[in-house]
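Hello forum,

I keep getting stuck at the same step: I have a sequence, I want structure tokens, and every attempt I make locally crashes halfway through. Rather than fight my setup again tonight, could one of you with a working pipeline run this one for me? It's a single chain of 99 residues.
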Amino acid sequence: MQGNFRPYVSHLLRNYMGDDKFFSSITQFLNENQYGNVNSEEFLQKLSVISGIDLTGFFLGWVHQPGFLNFNIDSIKQVAGSNNKYKVTFKQNLFNIPA
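Reply #2:
Ran it on my machine without issues. Output:
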């Protein structure tokens, strides 16, 4: 579903923006839009203006696309000569994409 703001995306957005910028921007956004409605595009535009960060690329990758990103562990291999170090390989793909 395009434009569906998935719950885990908020954590990724927080990491993308940094804690201080994320929380201050979200607080300001909520204060300015109290009791109102916005769609994902309006949220993107308003949050970008408030934060001073162009969030277009983030929203294109995480919100405005069909399906959602899925990460799977492809392999886990112990590093030679180490008892507690491992090399983990991930595979990224889109999941639940409409045909």
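Confidence is low (pLDDT under 50) at residues 1-5. If your local run keeps crashing, start a new thread with the error log.
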